[in-house]
Amino acid sequence: MNLNYAHNPILDSHIFVPDVEAHAWGDGRMYLYGSFDHQGGQTYCSDVHHVYSSEDLIHWTDHGVVFSLADSLWAKDCGALYAPDCAYRDGWYYLYYCVPDGRCGVAKSQSPTGPFTDVGQIQGIWGIDPSVFVDDDGQAYIYWGQLTWGKIAKLKDNMVEIEPDSVVESLTIAEHEFHEGSSVKKINGKYYFLFADTHRHRDPVSGEGRPTCLGYAVSDHPMKGFQYGGVIIDNFGCDPASWNNHGSMECFGGQWYVFYHRSTHGTVNSRHVCMEPIYFNEDGSIPEVKQTSSGVGEAIPASAYIPAHLACELSGHVRIAGDEASYENLTLTEIRNGDTVLLRYLNFHGETHMKVRVNTAVPLRVELYIDGLYHAEMAIAPAEGYAETAAEMPALNGRHTVIWKFFCKKGGGKISMDAMGFYG
User: Fold this and answer.
1) pLDDT-derived band at 149, boundaries 50, 70, 90
2) 0.90 cut: is pTM over it?
3) Which of 36, 207, 244, 354 is deepest in the core (most CB within 10 A)?
4) Range of the domain at 255
């Protein structure tokens, strides 16, 4: 996906990287360390880790496989590599990885992009999603855990062993709605603990929430006293089957960002990495931000030919899925009567026409809503394969949220849309 504007997801549309830990190591680039899903796959994660980097947060370099289960000294038969993190100390970059049974290991390299050579398993840790924070005084801490608790321990100077007597419980499901995905940063003298948060979208029977939120807790100490602060972002609505979220915060060029992921393909996985700018109130709290299609950019040019899979919120049955016949080989599919597709934000400069590329076997009516208000509509006739339909609309200017709503008399289910645009 070679688009000349900022957008979410931030990587190529066929790269599925969730659980991202972002690091700016001071060399003018941002580095991403995450899990690696397969497109349309039915399991979490694969057996490899890649690293991606960028100097402008728009164009990203894939540095290839930097570590795999085949490189592990002790976990070759564990099936998958779950969420990693990376830390720097004394000329070495340490990659912290974990496997599905909860064991964690360390590999190291003298380059932030690897390749990483395995050092071995970390003894005394049992739980996924290791995250490492190195404080200003040089003391390193490792955070891990899932479901009912998160734990913290001090790392020894070798960055491989923990101090066994230092292990403490940090966050819990009872007090913080902690689910998994620990990530810690020090900001303005405070310790911010980001995690997958289950405060919302509760099951009507069990009462359990979905961990679609990234919540945060704050403390004056790296190992204790974390008080729940709220939700930074919620990926609910990105896909009908979306289940979890996992990400991090990092500062680049003086601006803080939150990194998170969104599911595709009607699965809990096949997750894309996305990012949004975030801000801090005077009291240190972080206002919640919404998912966007534009990401780090102010808005996507409405006059561009826009892949439909940049939609950030979907309602109904519609979901992002692979389609070799479609634009970018990804499409919005299984569209049914009443489904909606939302893009946030597009920038208009007087455009008077709208167009969509749709594959439908039934007559279709599509309504366009701008910032939640009806704006225009078009009728789309059945055709063989994808076909473009255009219609006039009242002229638009400025930055807006765009929603497409679909209506069909025969139920739909065989309707797909892969691109859109505005002109005139």
Assistant:
1) confident
2) yes
3) 354
4) 21-278
